[in-house]
Amino acid sequence: MFLNALVIVFILVSALLWGGKARGYGLFSAFLAFACAIVAGAIAFGLWEVVAGALLNAGRDNSSFVGGLLQDTAWGLGLLLPYLASLIVLRLIVDSLVKGNLDFSETTNMAGGIVFGGAAAFISAGVFVVAAGYTRLPPRLLGYQPIADSNGNLVYESKLWVPVDGLTVSLYERLSVGALRNGTPLARVRPAAAEGAGMQRMTFKGQTRSALLPEQFKVVGRYTVEANLEQLLQDDFNPGRTQLVVGRDGRTPPPAGSRLLGVVVNLDAGAKEKGGNIIVTPGQVRLVVAMPSGEATTVHPFAVIAKPDAGSNLPLFRFRFDTRESSIASGAGESSAVFGFEFLVPPGGTPSYLLLKNARAPLNDGSVPESTFPTTLARDDAVRNQSIFRSFGAGGGASPLDTSGSRRIAVNEAGSVANLSPQGVFPGNRAFNKTVRGGLNVNDDNRVIAGEVTLARAVFEERGLDRNLRVDTFAETPDTRVVIVDLSEAGNRTLFGRAVEAAQTSEGVALVDEAGNRYEPVGFLYDDGSLVTIRFSPDRPLRTIGDAPTLSRTARDQSLHLVFRPTRGVKLVGFAIGNREVYNFRPEGVTLR
Questions:
Q1: What is the pTM of this model?
Q2: Residue 228, class by beta-carbon neighbours within 10 Å (0-12 exposed, 13-18 middle, 19+ buried)?
Q3: Under a CB-based contact definition with an 8 Å cutoff, are residues 472 and 431 in contact?
Q4: Total tally of structural domains belonging to the chain
Q5: Strand, helix or coil at 370?
Q6: Residue-wise pLDDT tens digits, 34-80
Q7: Residues 140 and 276 in one domain
Q8: Parent domain of 55
Q9: How many CB atoms lie within 10 A of CB 184?
Q10: Of the four listed, 75, 213, 248, 464, which is most buried by Cβ atoms within 10 Å?
Q11: Rounded to an integer, what distance in angstroms lies between the CA atom of residue 66 and that of residue 63?
Q12: Are residue 121 and residue 264 in the same domain, yes or no?
């Protein structure tokens, strides 16, 4: 492995340099370097969450290059930057205070320099390897892949020849509950952080997000199932088949007396991938468990409760993580997702935190409601009737719609309704030249996939555009369709536009399918008479009416069209504002084939 060689060479070269005869090296200087490295590491691990959170906040707009880069590197830089900054400052302070060296024999200087210089390099290498592991990179990092996927079980397969990552983290874990103890010690809130580096890189096909902000998801409830271990590994959705669950060594089964804990989380639109859905792998979810010994351990989910794909006759399903590259995804286009992750908690263990894509949420602060199922069959019944989520107010991430004032809009022979177009072509035959796309990203078919741009209206009046240069369509995916709802065209309000105009700007707009799923707009096309603004951000829906441009009552040449991207195959049956359905298309609905 290349990383093995790199680590060994770095430590050896550093040790030999500090053990050399040159001025400013030797035992005492190497000891000072070691002390600076120890202190810098403590500062870095202490500030890790704070700095990573600040970088994630700075990169909220992950549709931009800088935003995406910060999202991918926040947890790595969150550790590395404080370490480097602290190390530089500490060295400057030490060098300014300690002007001279201590006089030892040549042999003592060489031996001490090698030992302390090598130790300082060991700490630095450990921090660098852990930081690199927390960036969004493939599971195999320069030939080093500590975690293997064994049919859904995450196995700690290999270590570095010189395990700088594991030993460095172990050192600071011990310090965090010892001499440097604080209210949130590393060993208690983020145990086995070196393993976590490999776990969080087990993303879906190596392409999905590996970081979230704490406010992008919420733990809405937890439940337990009272049954023996064999029963806990079975369910009514896969009758007659017991799931194989093993520990991180790949061999040890869960201990007798383990209990099942389900943690229900609601992820909002901020957790979306650029493709418009939310994807989570079992390696990105860790339950921190406080053990009776005072230590903490982590366990990963072995199953998840979620909505099945569109077209299923079941509202919820229990999916096992029992295949290689297991993952769970929200419905494409849905505004939020509710997942129920199930863990086997060791006997005597107390769940304390949930780590989801590195974001941490408390479980034992009294704010999380709990429920208990007497058997796995009772749990499975609650899955089928959706009460397992609804009991926590998370039946789909939103409360039921008020349909009392809903007005019907007739569905035409083409299977659509007036001012609602189930296709992604820009309204009004608008098109522009790809060479002036500005902040819009387009694919090889010249379809807009993300971004925002404001162009002069004259740009859209170019005639005879070559097909290879013509941009006039929002991109769909295999799982989604684009739907455009006209609010106003050339100053003329549609029914939808008048409803939006009468609503509060703090309310949200959504299309609703027959299962009750809501789809928020992911963009708009706005023409104010002189400038045209196009926004398309499937990973950042418009949460409120105020996120879209405001139509003026006096300007007669304004146009505004909202762009939605619902799940392919669903039947749209309504248009909602806030928790009110204002228009419905029942019984026919608009089917998105």
A1: 0.84
A2: exposed
A3: yes
A4: 3
A5: strand
A6: 999 999 999 999 999 999 999 999 987 766 778 889 999 999 999 99
A7: no
A8: 2-194
A9: 12
A10: 75
A11: 9
A12: no
